[in-house]
Design goal:
The structure is a single chain. The protein is α+β, with helices and mostly antiparallel strands. It has one domain. Helix content is 36%, strand content 18%. It has 11 helices and 13 strands. A hairpin with a 5-residue loop joins strand 10 and strand 11. The longest helix has 26 residues.
Length: 390
């Protein structure tokens, strides 16, 4: 078996949704009108916390693929003012979201239990609102959402090798900036955070045998696996990883932007920033290199996302162990590409419909588990009923 990133083609049914004349696609996809379509054509379940479970109409996998979005489209009409990170979500909402995550991950683990046959991942994206809407790589819906995806290992193994120089793979360009230029500082900063269930792992121990990914990213093994994911402590530590990353990111790019900048406002871990970063010559020297390049290279400067941009992922490897990783998402890689899986979406209604019935069966079953846990009410669409199923 050759190790390396894989590229697969996934068929989808074209969405019958007209974009108003004069609007760009990603401008329209941020509108309340588009989110209404998401609810009525692909919505599975929603709750009073405005969390919406939906089928991915243009998905990553037709075996199992769903998302939960924090649907603030009618509460906050300004797409640049919507929450785009977990730490911006009200506590009662994040508590419900974590419980929904537990139910979906539990369903995936139980239904696709063989790690040799199935790759499982659950990831959240920072839909950072600092780029113009028309910039390349900007997400199509600027609201915080996550993904629940299952791939067949055999299909990945049979797939074509992906171009290892693809800039969207996590070992290229600015994706590995922190790891490649200040590896020790990066890890020492995370090591100073209070983690009990998440143990840092590097190299092959955290990589998928098939793809060799993640590469150039910090990884933590979840001690206790699924039993740990079902605890409150895990989700606290999951947020600590995120908050630590945000502090590191903001501090670094503050130094890139302004030499000797102060600790960012509202930092989560100001003492660690002071002790581990602002007196570290390697950290500040790396910021100088990036700053100097920004001054003379307009293309390079235009790629930088000055506010924290990331993708955070929970995944199961071929040994059945569960890990957490987080990516510096400076360019716009897809969530699957953190694990070396490049998805080429292909419009093909008949091929999609061949897999649709089994996919929907899975989605309705996991929806029922959410209903029974008092995590929302079913949504009826032209594709499935709203009543409960056995």
């Amino acid at each position: 078996m050759t190790t390396g990133p894989r590229e697969i083609s996934v068929p989808y049914r074209p969405i019958p949704l007209g974009i108003p004349e004069g609007m760009k696609a990603n401008e329209f996809f941020n509108s309340t009108e588009n989110l209404n379509d998401l609810v009525h054509n692909n919505g599975l379940l929603q709750n009073p916390e405005n969390l919406l479970l939906y089928r991915k109409a243009i998905g990553h996998s037709n075996l199992f693929d769903a998302s939960i979005i924090y649907n603030t489209s009618k509460l906050i009409l300004d797409p640049l003012g919507r929450p785009v990170r977990r730490c911006q979500v009200p506590t009662p909402v994040i508590n419900v979201w974590n419980r929904m995550n537990q139910v979906l991950i539990g369903y995936m683990q139980q239904t696709f239990d063989d790690p040799q046959r199935y790759l499982l991942m659950c990831g959240e994206a920072s839909l950072d609102a600092t780029w113009p809407l028309t910039s390349p790589g900007v997400p199509s819906i600027r609201m915080l959402h996550n993904h629940f995806i299952v791939f067949e290992q055999a299909r990945l193994e049979a797939a074509e090798m992906a171009d290892a120089n693809n800039p969207n793979l996590t070992d290229g360009g600015q994706h590995s900036l922190f790891e490649s230029t200040m590896h020790d500082v990066y890890h020492e900063f995370f090591d100073s955070l209070d983690l009990q269930l998440l143990n840092p792992f590097v190299g092959e121990a955290s990589q998928l045998a098939l793809t060799g990914y993640p590469q150039g990213l910090p990884c933590w093994k979840i001690c206790g696996g699924m039993a740990a994911i079902d605890t409150v402590q895990f989700w606290r530590e999951y947020d600590i990883i995120l908050k630590g990353f945000i502090d590191f990111y903001r501090t670094f790019f503050s130094q890139v932007s302004t030499r000797n900048a102060a600790i960012p406002d509202n930092a989560f871990f100001p003492e660690q920033i002071s002790d581990k970063l602002l007196y570290n010559n390697q950290f500040l020297g790396a910021a100088k290199v990036v700053r100097d390049k920004c001054i003379v290279d307009a293309r390079y400067a235009n790629l930088i996302r000055w506010q924290p941009a990331f993708k955070q992922l929970i995944y199961r490897n071929q040994e059945g162990d569960w890990f957490v990783t987080i990516s510096q998402n400076s360019i716009g890689n897809a969530i699957t590409e953190l694990l070396g899986v490049v998805v080429n979406r292909v419009p093909d209604a008949s091929a999609y419909e061949a897999a649709e019935a089994e996919l929907i069966e899975h989605l309705l079953r996991v929806r029922q588990r959410l209903i029974e846990a008092d995590l929302g009410e079913a949504i009826a669409t032209p594709h499935w009923p709203g009543e409960q199923v056995a």
